[in-house]
Known about the structure:
Layout: E1 2-6, E2 9-16, E3 21-28, H1 35-49, E4 59-65, E5 68-74, E6 78-80, H2 81-87, H3 92-111, E7 124-127, E8 132-134, E9 150-151, E10 154-155, H4 164-167, H5 174-190, H6 200-209, H7 224-233
Amino acid sequence: xxxxxxxxxxxxxxxxxxxxxxxxxxxxxxxxxxxxxxxxxxxxxxxxxxxxxxxxxxxxxxxxxxxxxxxxxxxxxxxxxxxxxxxxxxxxxxxxxxxxxxxxxxxxxxxxxxxxxxxxxxxxxxxxxxxxxxxxxxxxxxxxxxxxxxxxxxxxxxxxxxxxxxxxxxxxxxxxxxxxxxxxxxxxxxxxxxxxxxxxxxxxxxxxxxxxxxxxxxxxxxxxxxxxxxxxxxxxxxxxxxxx
Length: 244
């Protein structure tokens, strides 16, 4: 059965006859991959499969069928963080607890040279025990056709959460993930995204050129410590953000 869909592809619940259990099978959107793109995709997935952290869903298999890349991972019951934000009135304490655990998982991946490049509430799943796990870690760079833009031939992350350097088509590295996580924290605490615009290009322009809005402007009750953390995570200059 189909259990999810996004710009990147379709996720099915599938029976693995070798492991004798149900897994999530993600089939990527494009079928016209070049050999170089497919090799890069497989290399990135295998790299992320080597990660071992309770906050990262493990990948089991990667391959291609009739030219369409796919991979399998654990099938976990739960809801993504963006749905939790809509359906539940999360307290600041709970928000900080969830994002702290996500940050620990991100740090683990960074320590092993793996970046996510598309961190956002929709890529963070909260399981039945109330614990967050990150979806598709390390796949954003290797995949194509997801909720991304192309500028001068460079694929970027989801516009609302991308860093200024992503918006300008510059190299993306670990501090870019930190920026995206900071935007996620801002949105969860303030109940809205920091930048809003009528088009993706206008949104990217705001992210690159406009000052990042202080969260206190939208949510004055935000604890000062949390506001300071958001401000540093979302600094325009990558060197001014946390290192990890």
